[in-house]
Each structure stands twice: as structure tokens, then as C-alpha cells.
Please model this.
Amino acid sequence: MTDQDYLEIENLVIGYPTRRGEIRAVDGVSFHLSKGRILGLIGESGSGKSTLGLSMLGMVPAPGRTLGGRVRVGSTVVNSLSGDALRRYRWKEVAMVFQSAMNALDPVQTVGSQIVETIRQHSDETKEAAARKAVELLQAVRLDESHMSAYAHELSGGMRQRVIIALSLCLNPSLLIADEPTTGLDVVVQSGILSMLKEIVGSLGLTLILISHDISIMGAVCDEIAVMYAGKLVEIGEADQVINNPHHPYTQALLGSIIEVGKDGSRAGGIRGTAPDMLHVPTGCRFHPRCPRAFEMCAESEPILALHESTQAACWLKDG
Model:
């Protein structure tokens, strides 16, 4: 194992059985990520990005199940773990920042008690040592010691999200997964949270997966961007290349949907149609019914990720 393949997702397939059939929320996804890098995972709601993130913790919610492939973090094959081994792996090797911070915090416990309890449940730290570490963690996310005695309802949305980030760091994980960490926050607070995450990743040497539906926030934060559509990975590459020279029409459409403030008469373009019914995904390229550049082969044969000048894209359009 080297830093070049610290995180490896190999042909991962995750399904959810329903009364109408099985939904493959993640369908044959493969990529790797070097240690210390920040990967932005982008896609519309229902694209499979949160399920992919949960798979890295071994937390795919029931009745979901891994149908094939593997997830490896460092030397640990995550989907081979169970019981105590899985419990030891979570928090210490990988942690997650969930969206909706108000729901993630216990409303009847103080911020400090929640952090201290988490540290003591997973380590041999004394209560006093855990409390000192809790203060250090709050300071790392730009909150002072006085917030140890605060309850969730006493904090702003941005403060609550900072507490969740502090909680995720309490056992010094190597991999941090942030699922829509700025949802519901105003743009100024969003910028502060993202800037802080990038700073923490750099200072602690973490690897970060940043999950979002908003590609506009990714350029200033991420080293790489991966784009998902209907359970498939459709484009991946260096962040500046994906943003400035995208090759998949879906990535192009996401970027075209961004409203550019200050340009007279400019309007964001939408993506026509709707995301597919995951029980009846289109043949060939799953995006082809919505793609303005689709041609016959797109409906007949599924493209695979291939190098298109600067990024890997699953698209039959050779010129991007």
C-alpha cells in the first residue's frame, strides 16, 4: 500500500431491494485517491454519492447491501469488516460529517459532554484528558472554550456544523467524509466552513471526500472532482480540469446551471428532463435521454471511463 492508492474503490456495486425490484444506487464505480488529497463528489440527488460515502464507513443503511466489488482504506478492506472490527475502524480510521447538524447533535447534552463521551467510548482517555482534547478540537474549528457548556439550540447553524466537524476529528481519523456539510447555510457561512475544512485537512494531513450537489463550491476547495450520475461515475480528474475543460455533457450541464452574478443578461441553463427511474435505467449511457449531443451509439452501448485529454470521462463523444 502506498500513498498513491490510500483509498481504492474497485468495481463497487450497492443495491437496495424494493417491492418493485432492486435499485443499484452505486453500479460498478472504481477510482483511487492519494493520501492528503481532497476529492469532491458531485451529482444530483439520487445519483448515489451519499451511498458511496457511507460505504467507506461500512454503513450502507439496511436493506442496502454490497453486491460486488470492494472498498479499501489504507490496508483495511472495509466491506470485509463486521462487529467489533468495524466499530474499531469507524472514528479511528474514518469519520463522517453528516448534513443537518441540528439532527446530528443530542439536544439534551452539552457540546462538551458529547465530545468527551465520544472520546472516552473509543479510547482509554481519562475524563480530564478528554475534556482538554475537546477544548482543543473546538479551538481547531474556530470556537472558544465557552461553547463546551452550550446546547445545540443555543448555537447558530454554522456553529453547530463546526461542532460536528470537531466531533468527527476526536479520534484522529485519516479519512474524513463530509456529506453536504454546508446545506442550509448562507453563502458567507458556507465559505467559512469550506475554508476551515481545507485548512484542517492541510494541517492534520487528512484525506477528505466532500460530497455535494453544488459544483460551484468545488473549485476553490478540492484537488480532484468525481461526477456521478444515476449510480455511475461519469467523469473524474483534477479539479481545475474538470471545471475548466469538462468532457462529459452532464458535467458541462452542471457547470452551465451555475448563475453567474454580475453578467448582464446572463442566465443559467438548466438540465432538461429529470433523473431516471433507478428501477428502469436507460440503456447505453444513462444520461443520453437528457443529453443534447446524444447520437445512436449513446443509447446502444454503455461507455466506460477513458482519458479525454485532461480528464477521464465515460462518453462516446471523442472530442468532448
